[in-house]
Amino acid sequence: MPNETLIRGPVYVLEDNIDTDLLIPACYLNLVPTIPEEYRKLGSYALAGLPGTFPKFASNPDGTTPYPIVIGGRNFGCGSSREHAPIALGAAGAKAVVAESYARIFFRNSVATGEIFPLESEKRLCGEFKTGDLAEVDIAKSTVTRLSDGAVFALKPVGAVAPVIAAGGMFAYAREIGMIKK
Amino acid sequence: MTITEKILARESGAKIVSPGDNIWVNAGMLLTHDVCGPGTIGIFHREFGKDAKVFDREKIVILPDHYIFTADEKAHRNVDTLRAFVKEQGLPYFYDPGTASYCGVCHVAMPELGHVRPGETIFGTDSHTCTHGALGAFSTGIGNTDAGFIMGTGKLLIKVPPTLRFVLDGELPPYLSAKDLILHIIGDIGVDGATYCAMEFTGSAIDALSIEERFTICNMAVEAGAKNGIIAPDLKTLAYVKSRTQKPFEPLYSDPDAKFAAERRYDVSKLEPVVAKPHLPDNKALARACRDVRIDQVYIGSCTGGKLEDFVMAAKIMKGRKVAVRTLLVPATRQVEKGLDETKIGGQSLRQIFEAAGVEPIAPPSCAACLGGPVDTFGRTKGNEVVVSTTNRNFIGRMGSKESQIYLASPYTAAASALTGHITDPRDI
Known about the structure:
heterodimer, A: 182 residues, Aconitase, domain 4, seven-stranded mixed sheet, 7 strands, globular, B: 429 residues, four-stranded parallel sheet
């Protein structure tokens, strides 16, 4: 789990119903995330399924992304249970997704892996940011700030999964509560 | 409690559970395949140690099905990873490609093999694991991390979903199928209309559906965002399951006073054939309103639309006629493939009917082009093809090319469209 509570940098703005085929097209599912070299490759293909009208997400020369924050609309991560989806975002170097709502498997996989913070915004933010705008996500305060003018937008409380997120993922949480051996 | 709540209560050792409760649930079965199995195994070994043993060898099923008939080296390496793990752990339920035990698409093979039993919990590393709720099981898709966790512990922390009830009554007209019913429902509630909910399907029209058609309904519950789809077991269910497994099971049913978060009712006799237009499964339109959509390809296959009855429906339409566009058939499993030869309509086998209609050579069973896959995958789109498909998702790039357009349809509508070269209501044939 990215353990920063303050995430600052340019945002990458998406829309409603960003599905798992957009996040990581199936032709890259031959890569196994637990193999370090293939984990990095998955990062370089994050959001490779988007139409050409979108700028490349993992556009750094080393295959990572200059965008630590992804802004989405409703039903972010719908579709497949492929854990490659949150992993690709995390492996690319993204730290948080801020969306209006999530498809449940993507949300769960984000929390379980600790690859990325799946944060919910109180209102729709797709129109409040353009790709490249600087923002700051404050997880402790549940806010996202548009740095150009200081506008602050509220995030919803994390809720029941907060202990799992705080622990850093499913295994860390299960060890903390004594469900599996340390 | 609803059937979903009762299964989760029993498998968590609680007397009563309510929607929103976070509970540790026992895994009755864990399913994985070639795309998510290697990563799951990697997590299992990383977290539990290289000498770790799985929680219960009898409760793990490995059905490689995604990238089988490809020259892709990593795809072959991934199946080898599964083979090595099966050997290391001594797992009895592995269906190895290239051997007589190979089955094909996991969600069609799981129930065929008797691995799905009413009242049990099934977790699988594939979103369409919700299919198995059609036999009255709680069945849901999970990621590699949760699957690795189950492999070591046999348990998973889950949130009890609220249940939405869908009551389908009336007589299903001969030109409609279960695919039309679920496309209607998803079109009405939207791709996030059931997010985090259980979808329970009931009513006289559900009772009248065959087991295979019930699979089609529950299979697409995830396309509305649901955690699981479920249908109470009846005599058909019990006969189907008992003919496939000796293992004991205890079905559960919703209580008469069960609380549902919402209810929707349908009279199926009044519905018409529909398609889901690009690029979301809720983009519903009447098939007859899409007559001007010219198509390049028809695809009949997958866990949603590649079962034997799907091919029977397609054959009824194609018998004695010729297809006008490239028509690709991919039986979901070896058993379905066998059924193409053994099932006859008017003295002709389904295979003979399809061959006489001029379809492409029938492909061996696998997920094939339903999800694109490696570049040499059978039926993968390459350009701006317009496809009518019996599969479950029409996302951008889903079948390979970002430029292609996918219309989801029933086997009747897909077959009718293959004959005319444009989207066609089966009543017009």
